Amino acid sequence: MPARRLTYEQIAEDLAARIAAGEHPPHTALPSMRELAILYSVSVPTIQKAHIILRERGLTYGVPGAGVYVEERGERDS
Predict the structure, then answer these.
(1) What is the architecture of the domain spanning 8-70?
(2) pTM of the entire structure?
């Protein structure tokens, strides 16, 4: 367990790296916010902030009631 909690920026960077590495392929759901909160030992609002960063970077998109999914690379660039 880390000595200090990760910030939402650090979590967003880690998730972005995992997406880039192919750990989360395009159009697959990321783990739920609750699962990510447990994984990173942070609160759900911290995960929500990380999701905002990923969405702003065009890496993810939300489907109401279904979760957050990985964006196809470059798909939303237009």
Answers:
(1) Orthogonal Bundle (1.10)
(2) 0.86
